[in-house]
Amino acid sequence: MTTICAVVPSFNSELHIEQTIDSLLNQTKPLHKIVIVDDGSQDGTLEIIDGMIRENKNIELIQLKQNLGPSYARNIGVEHADSDWILFMDSDDIAHPLLIEELQAHLERLNRTGDQPEYFLAHPNYRHIDEHGNVIDNLNYGRPYRKEEALGFLLLRNTIATSGTLVNRELFRKVGGFNTEYRYAEDWDLWLRMSEHSGVAHINKHLVDIRRHSRNLSASMSTMHEYEKKVLLSYSLEKIKEAIFRRTQLSPKQNMCDYVSILFRLDKWEEGYTIIQELKDNDCNYEQLLFLEGIYFLKTESAIEAEKRFAEILNINQCEGASLNNLGAVKLIRGKVEEGRNLLLRALELYPNYLDARYNLQSPPPYTWKSLKFTWRKLRSKLISYDQQ
């Protein structure tokens, strides 16, 4: 590894852009250049950047005449970066001083072990901070993935934040960069395409602070899920299944369960349900099968059958958040209001940021399948707080 440039898209970022740039300037391993692509800011962002450029020649500003979105801005930044590697950082996030040094050293260690380099993407853990810089939570979502298994794991869930991720510029360009038609899930789409050619290196340290506030693009959960489906639809079912079954550290039955979960996300409910019935006759993850059956019965509005599945899950695991919400909602629909509300309160006690449970608890009667929110995937151990849109 020789040179690294940071690429930072900015749009009306006057509140935090200086702190972001300072965190990149203060790396223990200096960056070759910091490329800032301003996406048509109308506030004081440009004045702040101009002032910092006068004091540091390693900062380069590119001004777009109109707002074209962060994917376009990042792609432009990569084209202007004359380096071998790119560090992505959003304009309100903060890099720990050791971020570059740790990522570079980790990649070099991994890529020394084989005949050919295998890792062209690396990322750390991160913390969430609020608008004032107060730490909200520490997140440990990331995991390392070998090249042959990376796509199969990432298809199930995105575990990589954009800020603090280091990528090989040549591979980034080879796979086409960020898809400018995606305003949500554009990072996940890129990681998936890169994972077809690279393992995913991960450092189990909090080296980035990601700011959460009402202006975050990722705030709209419903729209984000629509774009996630678009990303999945860009792959054939054959390719998805093949990638999932390359995860040799998991059993074939576990891989099949995960394949069913993707079929459900693509609205292939009957196809997935048929596979579930076949798996039930085998020694498979019983709790996961119950959950898949449960969400199938939610989709088909079979209240009694759904209630049985989620209740059985809670007999196995009393803290399973998605089942608490889903069973609570079903009980509201069936007129068991007190039982339902108690389940939702329990879900919020365990997961204070759980939007579906909070929404259902605040919903007035009459309770219907359309008026309540169900959770279609098991929860992460920690939930991000998003605005509901």
From TrEMBL:
GO MF annotations, alphabetized: transferase activity
The keyword Transferase appears for this protein: yes
Q: Which domain of life is it from?
A: Bacteria
Give every Glycosyltransferase 2-like domain span: 6-175
Q: Does the keyword Oxidoreductase apply?
A: no
Alphabetized UniProt keyword annotations: Transferase
- Know the name of this protein? Glycosyl transferase
Q: Which organism is it from?
A: Geobacillus thermopakistaniensis (strain MAS1)
